[in-house]
Design goal:
By secondary structure, the chain is mainly alpha-helical. About 60% of the residues lie in helices and about 10% in strands. The longest helix has 26 residues, at about 45-70.
Length: about 200
């Protein structure tokens, strides 16, 4: 295969294209070590060494380093690795590696996320936020059912009251436009319209 392009990403890293297709990201020292120059032919043994030894190890280390600074779902970690220039196979291998040690655990992530936000957000909003992070609805339901079996309950009415108080909502002193605005905001957060109307009416009594 032939190096058809080398694009600098930073002062230390560059994207390498072989036969006009993106192949991998290498450090400058590696470009020199493996004689990666535009127009240069690369033998199969070099490519094999990079793809089976050098890059997989680096992708796994990158995944581990990311997890030292924050929590990720499988999807978030995969996306982060892909954005860092690791190919799909390398990124998936790295995620599988850290998952095998339970450094990434979507079920636990979902459970902790629900626990942290239950009572402050609607379950619908929590579910949607988790879905955006790569947690499917089946896993969300399973985590929620497990928490409920342990005695945790979601008091959405209390959450609505808390948000109304945070917005300093006083129905007696609120004009119709402001009331509609707050009502719409709470509905967008996933609370049922019936619940929102009922709680807001209580402030009017």
């Amino acid at each position: 295969m032939t190096v058809t392009a080398i694009e600098e990403i930073s002062k230390t890293r560059s994207r390498v294209y072989l036969d006009d297709a993106f192949a991998f990201v290498l450090y400058k020292g590696e470009l020199r070590k493996y004689h990666m120059e535009t127009g240069q032919d690369v033998d199969a043994e070099t490519i094999r060494e990079l793809q089976t030894k050098i890059l997989p190890r680096r992708a796994r280390l990158r995944a581990m380093n990311l997890l030292r600074t924050g929590r990720y779902t499988e999807k978030q970690l995969l996306d982060k690795l892909l954005a860092g220039g690791y190919g799909q196979d390398l990124a998936e291998d790295a995620v599988a590696y850290v998952k095998s040690y339970r450094y990434v655990d979507d079920r636990q992530y979902a459970s902790d996320y629900i626990t942290c936000r239950m009572g402050r957000c609607s379950l619908r909003e929590i579910e949607q936020k988790l879905f955006q992070k790569g947690i499917d609805r089946e896993l969300f339901r399973a985590a929620l059912e497990e928490l409920e079996a342990d005695g945790m309950t979601s008091d959405e009415e209390a959450a609505v009251r808390r948000l109304l108080e945070k917005k300093h909502f006083m129905a007696a002193g609120s004009d119709e436009k402001e009331t509609r605005k707050i009502y719409a905001c709470l509905c967008r957060k996933g609370f049922s319209p019936e619940l929102v109307r009922r709680v807001m009416r209580e402030y009017q009594s």
